[in-house]
Amino acid sequence: MKVIESSFEMLRNLGKNTLTIKRTFMASSVSLSKPVLYNVQDTARVITLNRSKKLNALNGEMCESMFATLNEYAKSDCANLIMVKSANQPRSFCAGGDVSFVAESNSNGRAEESAQLFTAEYSLNFQMATYQKPIVTFMDGITMGGGVGLSIHTPFRIATENTKWAMPEMDIGLFPDVGTTFAIPRVITLANANGQMALYLALTGDVISGEDAYMLGLASHYVKHDSLADLETRLAEIKTLKDGSASDESFFTMVDNAIEEFASQLPKDHSFKFSNEKLNVIESCFDISKITSVKQVLQKLDEIIINNSDASQESKQFASEIKGKLSTKSPTSMQVALRLLQDNSKDNIESALRRDLYTATNFCMAVKNPESGVEFSEATIHKLIEKQKAPYAWKTKLDDLSPSQITSLVSPKPSMPVSLWRNYANVTWKQYPHHLKYQLPTETAIMKYITGQDGRNNSLSISKDEVISHFTNFNQTTRGKIGVDKLCRMVIQRKCTVDDANALKWKN
């Protein structure tokens, strides 16, 4: 309880813009017991998550500490870049937020404590998304929920062979929070023209390997675990150009080039998780521009399983597997996830995270209102605290949920006002300024090049080899990146036809 009380005091001080924090570095034996460690390494600053027994699940103390320290680093001319890693890699980077604490607090009538934790966490996410200096996150191990929030908003997101990426909130009746419904539609490389892959990942909670996280754009780089220590040393050595700043684009490019020095080839036996057939199913069933309810997703899956005689056996099997997964998830959470994706994919990062905060607060307060359809606290206690083996039996069904009910869940409530903390940058944006420059090309970028929408003369035909050569050798943002040729081939095979002159034509 003392931790909670001190957290409240810190929060109050934050609201007054008077928060100060005393940082202890790793040289101190006392610091080793802290849930977050801070280390100076040349011109870099290293933040190490150190709550290993909880797989680095984020609590209020950790989020408050990182928020305050990042503000200090932002003001320092000596801190060029930030690295965020785990003390127990490769087991876990961060397994999420401390939802067990949240659920118990809600059930005991202390929803305001839960709201304070979410306020701290989402404020940290907002700060990292708008940070003016490079942040490099090492996703070495379990990267789920809150761990995704710590990484997805940073321009340099390093996956390894140990990465296990997921947003599994549907299983406990929460929703894909921490700004992921803003981030994922903007970074995903494949089957995402209308947020399809984003919605698929949000609803199913599918676990993605490090190799596939890289191919999908969830990670910007792929580096083997054994190279991380050397990479960390290399990053710490990077100096800004003369008369330059750590916020300059040139410095971000230097960081990217340094990481690329350590980038690993994907394993020779790597087989991408999603075949063309599976990508087609995701594309046709999870289009957020065309569906208004999760019931429509289920109907589209049924059309493939039952009614589509032209569908392959692989497509039918995959659609059936998806339907089985969705049947175990919280109906309320899935419908909220759809709404948040539709809203946040069009909004700026600040508004998106604020909307997440409203929603999380409402989910915490719902203990007092059984009619809300929210069963987050009950399901979390069932699964994570009582450790029941049987799945939680959702009382609310999809048919029970009205559009106005969902609107109420994602809207602010006067009974518990919440707001994000202002950070040092005090900016927002609709598109990340750096992300797409340092990851694999998106399907949309490849489409624009093939069709000439990027400024290329579209009257000139172009071959598959020319497209691959462009993105592997000449495109400034993707030149030399591992896996570019593989991604281009996948996109071309699925999305293009080839005429007798070997010219590509994009399918409508």
Outline of the structure:
With 508 residues, the chain is α/β, with parallel strands linked by helices. It is built from 20 helices and twelve strands. A hairpin with a 2-residue loop joins β1 and β2 (44-49).
Q: Quote the CATH topology of the domain at 25-166 and 178-184 and 219-262.
A: 2-enoyl-CoA Hydratase, Chain A, domain 1
**Major beta-sheet overview:** 6 strands, mixed
At the fourth CATH level, what is the homologous superfamily of the domain at 25-166 and 178-184 and 219-262? Answer: 2-enoyl-CoA Hydratase, Chain A, domain 1
CATH architecture of the domain at 25-166 and 178-184 and 219-262: Alpha-Beta Complex
Helix content: 40-55%
- In terms of structural class, how would the helical and strand content be classed? alpha/beta
The Rg value, from CA coordinates, equals: 23 Å
Give a structural overview.
This protein is of the alpha/beta class. Among the domains are: 193 residues, Alpha-Beta Complex (2-enoyl-CoA Hydratase, Chain A, domain 1), CATH 3.90.226; 67 residues, no CATH class. It has 20 helices and twelve strands. The strands form three sheets. A six-stranded mixed beta sheet has the order 1-2-3-5-7-10, sandwiched between helices. Strand 1 and strand 2 form a beta hairpin. Helix 11 packs across helix 13 and helix 19 runs antiparallel to helix 20. It is globular, with a radius of gyration of 23 Å. The N terminus is likely disordered.
